């Protein structure tokens, strides 16, 4: 392959994931075009060409893809039918549009796990709130909307009859509530030639209210046996799907030492941001290697690491101000990554901080320092 700008890559989605993908693409001298509905999206000033358009509009996606050689995504909420049509016209589309469509619906995701004997929590499909009432005997349950859930939205725990009154009245699923000890994730890449590479398992800590990752540790503090099992499951999934690209797989570790797959995302993921600093190859470079059918990069960790999400402070909406960054930069082994979003909102992902430290205890202490020190507020 010639590393010139003669291969045009189109990315659907112009958020922080796309921005970090472009940053990795610079080293390969790749031409990146981006489409996003927000004219001020983080990719706006970094992409070689930037188009404002709806990612779910068939005609807009078709028009965007016409002059691209390879198309990929940084968010699942895209028009998969348009991508399939572009694929039929000879465009290379990764991940495969059929896989994107399956993952877009949490019900079909769960049915995929069930069909391929991937360990996951027992579930039933529901069409409405009335359906939820028919399964009261299963309480406590986790209700998930079939579509449009993101960063914790569209997911709720129903513990008793009173909470069932607040159930979503829309198609989705009810999942058996899993008491778990840890939430872990594996990011796995597969290229068109069938080469597979996994990143070391990470351990995620979720925000207690907003159900999104607050911080994580890499590698996860789990036994080698569990780490090997998680790795095996990730490899099985990408092989079963004949997946091309990068797939993030979130899992639970139960008190009796079992692993259950929760959900997956067919793109770079919040659980892999630390790889930019902490691994031999970042998840973003790996995604590019995979969709261009290049040899996959080494994934080993260079150091124990942590990643802290920088979330907009409650009660603050407006131009973003990052308090504490100067003090943070004086701390060795701490690396902020700002996403370029002009406006902060409560609990919006505005950046992340990667921490590298061979001393795991000190790593945990620094995570708490970062959480207390850096605040994203409005001006």
Please provide a written account of the structure.
The chain is α+β, with helices and mostly antiparallel strands and 379 residues long. It has 3 domains: 8-93, Rossmann fold (3-Layer(aba) Sandwich), CATH 3.40.50; 122-176, ATP-grasp fold, A domain (Dna Ligase, domain 1); 182-378, 2-Layer Sandwich (D-amino Acid Aminotransferase, Chain A, domain 1), CATH 3.30.470. 28% of the residues lie in helices and 29% in strands. It contains 12 helices and 21 strands. The protein has helices at 16-26, 58-65, 80-88, 97-104, 106-115, 129-133, 161-164, 224-241, 275-278, 283-291, 325-329, 360-373; strands at residues 8-12, 31-36, 49-52, 70-73, 92-93, 123-126, 141-145, 155-158, 172-176, 182-190, 196-198, 202-206, 213-218, 245-253, 259-265, 305-311, 318-323, 334-338, 343-344, 349-356, 375-378. Strands 10, 11, 12, 13, 14, 15, 16, 18 and 20 form a 9-stranded antiparallel beta sheet that branches. Strand 4 (70-73), helix 3 and strand 5 (92-93) form a beta-alpha-beta unit. Helix 1 (16-26) packs across helix 10 and helix 2 runs parallel beside helix 3. The chain is globular, with a radius of gyration of 20 Å.
